[in-house]
Each structure stands twice: as structure tokens, then as C-alpha cells.
Records
---
Amino acid sequence: MWIFMNGGKKDGVPVRSGEATFPKAMDNVTVRQGESAVLRCTVDNRVTRVAWLNRSTILYAGNDKWSIDDRVVIVSNTKTEYSIKIFNVDIYDEGPYTCSVQTDNHPKTSRVHLIVQVPPQIINISRDITVNEGSSVTLLCLAFGRPEPTVTWRHLSSKGREFLSEDEYLEITGITRFQSGDYECSAANEVAVPDIRRVKVTVNYPPSIASPKNTGASVGQKGILRCEASAVPVAEFQWFKEETRLANGLDGVRIENKGRMSTLTFFNVSEKDYGNYTCVAINKLGNTNASIILYELSEPPALAEALQVLHLKTQTVTHSSSWRKKDDALCRGSEPPE
């Protein structure tokens, strides 16, 4: 074992550079996390002893390894260069390193600072959340990286509105049903591609029935009333005629609910079926209703005209046939039929 001496100081304590008579090591070495870093120190033939230190810990003294870290190896120890290599660099390797040399019994040092760049990584993000319309929502997206990543929130809607955030929080006051959906958090720096995660925000709201349309149907034909309601959670439907709630399968009607749509079907419309019906949409936040009329559908003008033409043709054919019978009777000398 050997030590450098400088005014009574023991080896392992970094010594400030004196009047530099040998070239300095590079000031900074920048590598990405997981890559390898080579720390080089230029020397000359006047150097008698060399060492690399990390802060106050000796890594190498000449060719002798003092570090117990298998990732640290010596790659060059010549008359012109003394270099070490650190494999699979991690964030805790960042910091100052000192190349200490001794020439003519005068120790000198040259310093290099290892900078470790870390790709952006989202380390904590809000879980999917369900809230009622009008509530306030705070979303968290905590990211780490070197340089410190920029966090950007974006609502993945048709408008694709972006929320630029200076910190990890996104606050939405009085959220509406139109602000539901996926929110994308992106953490970006210049080291690697952004890290992207998503949070699903579900906004509950009471039912709202779209503009209902009255429907016409002829007696004996099929008639269908439709009721569409948007709601979260999805609405349940009920149908009424006046004060009576209708039941599926009774009185020749069928009620069918699929998602936002409910249909009331009459397979054989009768006079008693005409009238005003009420559709009620219900979920845990409230209910709403709408009035829909099933009215009697008259024959279309085109159909009535076609029937009239057909009637006239039938009369004409019948009349012509009668005259032909009279003519035949006269030719035979017999009385024409009445």
C-alpha cells in the first residue's frame, strides 16, 4: 500500500490542484443511466504514482484495485493516460471524481464530474376515478428523471385539449359530463422518449332524454315508440299510459331496452292503443320523463289515389264486358241480357 503526502495529509483526501503542469482531466462526463462511463486522465513521463478517487474513497491506486465494486475497472495505465471505466452507471454514481498524480514528490489533482442522465419515468399516478357531475377533481402524476422531466396533461377527447402543468397536479373544478374520459400524462426530458400513462375519469350525471318523436301507425299495422336517454350510470326505463305502467308482453306490446334506447312495440295496433305515452328514465342521480304520442296514420294520398284509379279501372272493365254481351245477343236475334 502507498499514500500520497501533501503537508501531512493522508491519501484518500482530495487535494486541490496546484500550479497545473500536466493537462487537466475533462471537466464533465455525461452518460445515460445503464450505459458505461470512461474517466480519462492525461499524464506524462514525470508522473510516478497515480490514483482515482470518488470523493474520499480510493477506487484504483496504480493497477491496484481498492474498490469492491465489480463495475469499476481500469482500462488504461500508460505513460500518457490513466483511465477507468464504470459499467452500468446508476444515479448514485453521479458526483465528483479525482485523478491524483505525484510528480517529483509534488502531488497534483484533476477533477471530473460524472453526470448521469435518467430517462423520464412516472413513479406515481392517480387511479381511475368516478365522480358526480359538478365535483372537483385533482389528478396526480409524479415523475422522476434527470434532467427533471416536464409533465403535460392532455384530455383525450375529440378536441384534444391540453393542460400544461408546472407540477404534478391537474385540478378540474366543477367537472362536467363532457370532461369525462381518458386523461393522458406525459413525462418528457431530452434523454429518452416520454413516459406516458393514462387515468380514466368517469362522470356520473342524471338522465337526459333526447327530443322524443311522436309516431303514427295504421290500425292492424306495427307501431314503435322510441325513447333515448343519456345517463351515467346507464338509465333504466319505464313506460306508462296515463297512470298505468305497461308490462312487457301484456296487451300485445313488447318493451325492449338496449343501452341508451328503449322501444315500445305494438304488433297489431288497435283503436284503443292510440294516445299519449310517458317514457321515464331513471338512475341513482335522478329521473326524467318525456311524453310520446302514438297517433292514427291515415292512408297516404298516393295510396288513396292509386286505389281510386284501380276502382275506376274495375268499373270500366265491368261496363265493357256488359256491352259485349248485349252485342252478341242482338247478332243471334235474341234478347240482350239485362
---
Amino acid sequence: MAKVNFTAARVNGHSCPAGKSQAFLWDSGASGLGLRATAAGGLSYIWQGKLSGSTVRVTIGAPRDWGIDDARDEARRLQRLVDGGKDPREEAAAQRAASEARKAEARRKDARFSEAWAVYLDAHHTKWSERHYKDHENLAHAGGAKKLRGTGLTVPGPLAPLMPLKLSSLTAETIAAWLEAEAQTRPTNAEQSYRKLRAFIRWCDDRPEYSGIVAQNVYNARSVRDAVPRTNAKDDCLQREQLPAWFDAVRKIDNPVIRAYLQALLLTGARREEIAALKWDDVDFKWRSLSIADKMDGSRVIPLTPYLASLLLELKRINDTPPNVRQLRRLQGRGEKWQPSPWAFASKTAADGKIAEPRYAHNQALSAAGLPHVSLHGLRRSFGTLSEWVECPVGVVAQIQGHKPSAIAEKHYRRRPLDLLRMWHNRIEVWVLKQAGIDFEPEEARNSPQMAANT
């Protein structure tokens, strides 16, 4: 092939003849340097040589970006690679891969807490219970939204200040400062958030896209451990001698839903959200069982004791009773159609249709009864405490309440059927009602002398 000395005039004047797809002009100043012109009018410097008997062609760049001397230098570099037995194309691919890896690492280190947190929640959505998942969402909520109940705006969750940060910014100093700030106003939530943050960081270490970004064991640094709020365990619960006053005050609450809900909390030992989320489809009156949306395991089935069944049957009757003619007309005027609520503890004012805030009524009942404060969770604690009076096995109480087994035998060798739980659960309810001075006789006991004797 003929070679010419590249000049600016020759380079700019080179073109592809009509009828051809491309045409080449070769330089005499550097081995393998050529200028390619295409039918579309494009110009580019190329280098062409031989490697192991095969032709290798590499595009250098357009004349508008590369001067002639620069193109010659690049051609000589490529020739030296081939002389050394290296393929310039492989070197270019390796450089591109290294560049992409550097960019990916930079993007990885720039990952925000909020981005990784969203991936973390999505990865566990099907593994956690709905309530446990919601707890994580609430702790990281940005706040500023209009409250569903009451006036004003929601406040940010304890984890919200960490959301805008890069994962690489989660140093011991940052976490300690965050804990100290949160502990000033909400120490219990701060301690819960720390435990969830710790689990999140451990998860990040196991994920290739986040591994190594956060310093190892940063949550165990002394400054962090010292900043974790020391929350005292709550011990509020009803004592045996307080049961008559509590039941008397609660049973006088005007709202039948709240009245039944508070008694259900005490008689099942369930978490407040678990009972609030109970639907009629979860209540089996025939086989006397409740399907509880468990916070930890997704769901559990517990006995439906006779007295609680009577409370729920009354709510069912109220729920299934259509409104009067005037109310029906009012609904029709708004383009609405009446239908029974799917929730066992329904609320006409709550946004989601189920009971939302029974604490006010409960606190009023406690005040009327002259009792010290007992939280709604304290009623759950009361169930576990009062069950000891009937010498109920601890494992039975834990299974009813949805607590994790705490011993090897409980974990691996105890599979209690519902009937066995029912026997003990009924005993607990009978004892509680007796201490409260409530004269209640189950329907089956009234209809069957033999069952009455067994009870």
C-alpha cells in the first residue's frame, strides 16, 4: 500500500470515492497509521498491524480531536505493544473494565443510607410480619405529613437524621452523636432504633454492593455503647386484688368496641396491634380459635376462651346489624353502600376502619377505679403474671402470647396442640373472672351438665 506524509491539507482533503464504503490513506511517518474515510463523510485515524499472523486494527480517533503528531505517537505505542506480543484491543478492554470498576466503587461508596435502607426493607418484606416491617418504616419516617388523627404534622422518626448520610459517613462518632441527640427526647425509641441500625449494618456487610463501606463493628465502639440509652424495663401490670376494680371500670365504658378490646388484651396477653388487626375471618366461633397476626412469626393460632367469645359475639351482632332507614338514606345520598366491617374491633372514625387509639378510654377507666397507671402493653404483661396463679406452664403462656421459646426443650421438643392450650387458657380466664367477681357461665356449660362438671 502506498504511503504519504500526513499533512493537514492531505488529512482534511481525504474522502471516500463514490461507490465505495470506505477508503484509506496511509502515513509514511509512523508504521501502521492510517486515515479512514467513510461514505457518510466520517474521518478517523486508525492503526493496523500484525499479531501472530492476524491483522489487528484499532481506531485511534477523529482528526478534529487528534493532531497528526499525537496520532503518530499513539500508533507507535500500539506498535510497541504488538512487538511485545500484546493485543492492543485486550489492553483497551482491560482499561475500560478497570475504569468501570473504579466508577462502580465510587458509586458504591457514595451510596446513601436511605437507598440501602430501602433495599434492606424490600429484602425482608416477605420474611417479617407486617407489624415488624411497619416498625422499621415508622422509625425512619421523614415526618412532616399531616396527622391522620388530631391536628399538626408528624414528627420524624429516630432514624430519619441518618437517612441523607452516605453509608461511608456512619462512623462511631456519627452514630454516638446521633444516639446522644435522640436520647434527650425519646430514649426508648433511640435504643430500639440502635438495635435495628445494628442489624442493618450487619446486613450491609453481607451484601456485595455495600460490604466494607461501613467500618467493621462500628456499632460496638465504646463511644457508641456508652451513648446507647439505658432504658428501664417496664413493670406495670394488674395485680390480683386490682382485677375487680379494673373490670368494673372497663365494663362501664360506653363504647362496646373499646370495652371488649381492653378485656381481650388482658385475657389473651396479645400485643395491642395484634388484637386491633383481628378480622372476623380470623375468628372461628365453631372451633373456638383466633388467628393472630404475629409480630415475629407472621401468624399464630390461640384458643378463643368462652368469656372472650361472648364479647366478640356481641360485637359481631352489632357489626352485622344494618343501620336504620334514615342512616341508610344518608349513605345513599353520599353514594355509599352499607356493609359490615371486616374488622372485629371496628372504628367508624379511624382511617383504616379499625380501632386506633383506646388509651384515652383506658386511662379514664383507671382513674375512675383509683388504680395506678397501666399501659396497654401492661395488660399483656398482666396476663403473663396472673397466669402463674393457676400454675400454668411457662411454655404454654409463651406460646399463647407469641413469645419465642427460651429453652432447648421448648424449641425442639414441645409441640402443643390447640386443645392443650385451650385447657390452660380456659383455666386462666375462669380464675381471672372469679377474682374480678364476674359471674359468667359458658353456654356449653349451661347446656351440658357433664361439661359443667369438667369445667
---
Amino acid sequence: MTAASAAVVCLGAALVACGGGAGGGGYTAVGGVPRQTVAAGKPTGSVRMVPLDGPGGGTAPAGTAGGAGERPAALPAPDATGTPTGTAGRPGPHGGPGPSQSPGHAGPATAAPSATGRGTAAPSRPAPGPTPSRTASPAPADLTWGAAERADTDRRWCEKVTVPFHNAGGTPVRSGTVTFGTHIIGALGVDWATVESTAALPVPIGPGARTDHTWTVCVDAWRVPLGMHVETRDVSVRWK
């Protein structure tokens, strides 16, 4: 160090000593210092804020559920209906995460609303048409007959008998017999005896047909003496 430098140092020390001695409020003039503008600094890393008092009166550790320095979990972006598309579940009953739901199982399926506001019902099947019935077989023959109409002949032991027939069935009458019951009547109207005789039925008699037939019914001549006559009152039919 040179002598000039030593003198400057000593002079500075003396001035400092003088300024801080008497009043205690003096300042040392060190010359004009140009004013510098300092820009406010921004943090370059993550900021961590620690509260002074935790929920229990103490200081909460950083990174716990009550700490302010904990970063909130990123929320999933909602879809077109407003429902988050992520898999994060709701909080469980003990503060833990709830069960996650996949997008394909968000809940029970509901029917899509129609123009009237109601769900669209599944189309019902058309009612089956009437089953064609089988061709019914024709009804069997049903033959009926009426009361006999009698007429006298030139012989007292014979008379003409006409019987009407009606087939109400669906098939024709193909065979049968007619049985007559002829009564022998005395001169005083006494019914002495009844004689039966049989004749063939006039067949065929078609379905729905009406017909009549006349027979000459006779008994033995010796059964009808002079003054007596015959009356055919009974008619029965057997047919198939």
C-alpha cells in the first residue's frame, strides 16, 4: 500500500468516527449513488404455503388433507350430458374414494324419450289371424215321417196308405223298412185284432228331401168277414 492510499483510509475512518459520535444521528456522506430500479421477482418453482395453526391447534404438515399446500386432483372433463367421463368415484363413507364407474355402466338403462315425452315402447307383434277351420263332415241322415193317410179299396180287407217323409240330415237315406199295424174293426166298431205287415222304404231319400209314398196294405181275407173292415193306424220306420 502506498502512502497516499493509507492517508485516504485514515481520513475515511476519522469521518466515520465523527459522524457517529455526538448526536448519534449523523450520517456519513459517501457520495452520490445512482438509484437502481429493481424488478419484482417471480417464483420460478412451485409455491408451498403452510398455515400457522392446523385444525387441532398445531401446525398441519405439508401435503396432508388439511394443508393448504395440497394440490387438488384434476377433475375429469364433462361429456355432452354434463357427466364427468373419468373413472374417479365419489368419496366413500369413510372419506376414501368411492367405487369407480366405467362409462359403459353409468346406471340403469332408461327408454329414450319420444316426441310426446314418454319412453318408446317395443313394437308389439300383430295378433294372429283366424285359423282356417277344417271342412266339417256332413251330418248323418235324419228321417222323420208324418201320420198315415188312409183310403178304401174295392176289397174290404185292403186299403191304400200314404205316408210323408222328410230327411233333415246331411246324407241320404239309403235303405229301410216301414211296418204297418192294421186293425180289424167289427160291425159295431169293436177292434177285434191288429195285424202287422212290412214294406220297403222308398229310397234313396236325399238330404233335405221331402217325399211321400203310397202302399196298398192288405190282411188275409178270412180275417175280415162281411160287415167288417180294416184300418191301418200304426206306422213305424226303420232306416239307415
---
Amino acid sequence: MDTRTLQHFLSLSDTLHFGRASALCHISASALSRSIKQLETELNVILFVRDNRSVQLTHEGALFQAYAREALAQWDLTRNTLLAEAKELHGEVSIYCSVTASYSFLYDILSQFRHNFPAIEIKLHTGDPDHALRRVQNNEEDISIAAKPDLLPKDLAFKPVGISPLLFIAPKAKNTLNENLSPPTTTEQWGSIPMILPEGGVSR
């Protein structure tokens, strides 16, 4: 069963804010708006009164909110009961990483896992790697794939899954990179090299 539309509706009805609701649903605000519009068309009622400044539930929206909560609760209960009867490990795991890390590491990590535990739902979220550790600490994610910092927070465990080298890319026409980065390097040498750096994170 596809329960995403109900989840989209409940996120918006709880936050009454398209930006916050779309972030919770991990979709764009425009995609959330289309999902709500399609639901209103199917029900043939207006669920939200919205303008450029505010979003409010209609009377029909409040009635549907109660139904949506009950429907999702019943669906989760039924699904968990069926999985328990099958004696299969079930549940969900939330993973956060950069898009690059998802291409570099996730296939090897998840291919065997999906084969062994098909009833586990994997929720993948991608974004700035600088947020990876904080999202786990804030209980927004179960696992993050990130570069290990020099000082790992005490409340986090770390398991190495690979080594990603730090690479420098420069135009061939200006063959000064090797000269400037030849050991020993100094603060002055680094300062003379124009570079594009992220605002934060381990690589910076």
C-alpha cells in the first residue's frame, strides 16, 4: 500500500507550513502541493485554506485528519502483526549521507542487507555531509555515512567502510599545483593557492 499521500497530508496538517512539511516528507514544496491538490480532487473537498502567508485546515480537513491518523496507525499495526507472524526482522532504518557517498558506498553496504532483511524499510536522505554527525545526534537519522573527524563525539560509534582520498584538481595550463603542494607545506604556501572550499565540514 502507498501511504505517502496520507503522510504528506498529516505533515502539512500538523505544521501548517509547506516548507516545514515538505522538509519532513523529504520532498519539494511544489511536490507536496501537488500531492495535496490531488488528494483534494479525489475527495472533492477543500482540505486547506492557503494563501501566500498562512495555511489553515478547513472543517473537512479536520475530519480527514482524524481519519488519516487512524488509517496510518491501523496500517502500521497490521503490517507489524503480519511481519511478526512471518518471524521476519522488520522495521525501518534511516540513513543520511552525501550524494557522492550514496554512489560510492551504499550499493556494497545495502545489497547484501536487502537480500538478508527484505522486510526492513530503508529511508535514505542526502544532503550536506557537514550535517551528518549532528543529524544522528539529534535522532533525525539512525546512521550516517561521513568522514571521521579527529575527535569523534562520545555518544557516537564509528565503523570504517572505506577510505576516500583527498584529491586536488587544477587546470593543466597552470602547472603550479605540484610545486606549491610539495612537502613541506606552509601556511604561506596554502594561502597562495586559490581554492574553492565548502563552508564547513571535515574536508575544509
